[in-house]
Amino acid sequence: MSFKSLGLNPALLKAVEKQGYTQPSPIQIKAIPHILEGRDVLASAQTGTGKTAGFTLPMLQILDATRSDKFRPIRALILTPTRELAAQVYDNVKDYGAYLNMKSTVVFGGVKAASQIATIRQGVDVLVATPGRLLDLENQKALSLKRVEILVLDEADRMLDMGFLRDIKRIMSLMPAKRQNLMFSATFSKDIKQLAEGILTNPILVEATPENTTAEKVSQKIYRVDKQEKTALVSKLISDGNWKQVLIFTRTKHGANKLTEKLVKSKISAAAIHGNKSQGARTKALAGFKNNDVRVLVATDIAARGLDIPLLPHVINFELPNIPEDYVHRIGRTGRAGAKGEALSLVCADELEYVREIEKLLGQKFKMETIEGFEPTVLEPTQQPKKPAGKKNQNSFRKKPKNSSGAKKQDSRGGRRDSNSRRTR
């Protein structure tokens, strides 16, 4: 199968060749012909499978066939959940449309809107946007969606996770009822199927990989380690392995900042990327990471989708995510487009339940490993030896801090808990 056999025009084939691609991926083979036919498509594709080209190439061909040089309303709208993904998709639109007379732009928050508005007013065929900034500009009467012919919802499941459902419904109301709709999602959850029923008309269902699977060429390892030893272990892994490009995920923004500071103190160049960082800081950190000026990028789940880092060799889960599906998205940053990758997870006693949830999702059992010098001293509560009645336990693994009253520690709601209990994050 070749790109030419999919029915793409010479200008697009030339652009694809320039990008170095010779054969279409499974999602492209399955989706492109249906999109060119004008059908609505609901596609499930694991990240890194080439899904962006899967909708961008046929979209550009359809628009080019009915293009007007004099009047350029927004004819195609691509919605993405994050700024990083929006920027990545926009780059793809530019690259694949290099030999077409097509204008495009991207709008997202975190930067001033004036230049975005000026570009839109000059006329664009394709607009890539995040929901919030798009609605802001529409409220300012800076753009109109009344001539949209093609709508693409990229990472639709992530948009639902981030609470964009109301925004999506508002955006739907601003567009013509008659249009082509393309929805791409990593999973086919009940919520996604329900959203699709309200947007798509007689859609073609396309699945490139089984639901919630991880890239075949990603080596997954889990290391048991005490919580307070994680930073030292990360430094050892990076230094001993002489790793040059590592993406590390933390659960919180504060945790990302804290880990970044400790890595820098250990003479390992690092930068953090999360929601509290300005768009300029996020762009600078990502650029530094891509060109190898920054060795480690520490990120929250805002970066789990949409970061396109070619041949990224290592991903580390410094903390496992609360939602098991996010584990799939995180490690999907490596092993992209058939390349090999390694995903490591550092797991303390409090996170063992997360491991079981991920195993259940993926239908596989992980082997727990340890690294010499970092063996965990805190075991699962069920594995800790029971304290003999009336005697002081000499085999306790960690001394519990005493408070002034000697009473058991209480949480903010007044309920009792022990030091290894799982907290809601």
Automatic annotation (TrEMBL):
Gene3D superfamilies: P-loop containing nucleotide triphosphate hydrolases. Keywords: ATP-binding, Cytoplasm, Helicase, Hydrolase, Nucleotide-binding. A motif (Q motif) lies at residues 1-29. Residues 32-206 form the Helicase ATP-binding domain. The keyword Cytoplasm applies. The keyword Hydrolase applies. Residues 217-382 form the Helicase C-terminal domain. Its EC number is 3.6.4.13. Residues 408-425 have a biased composition (Basic and acidic residues). GO terms for cellular component: cytosol. SMART domains: DEXDc, HELICc. Residues 376-425 are annotated as: Disordered. Residues 1-29 form the DEAD-box RNA helicase Q domain. It catalyses: ATP + H2O = ADP + phosphate + H(+). GO terms for molecular function: ATP binding; hydrolase activity; nucleic acid binding; RNA helicase activity. One of its GO terms (biological process) is ribosome assembly. Pfam families: DEAD, Helicase_C. Belongs to the DEAD box helicase family. PANTHER family: ATP-DEPENDENT RNA HELICASE RHLE, ATP-DEPENDENT RNA HELICASE RHLE-RELATED. This is DEAD-box ATP-dependent RNA helicase RhpA. It comes from Polaribacter pacificus.
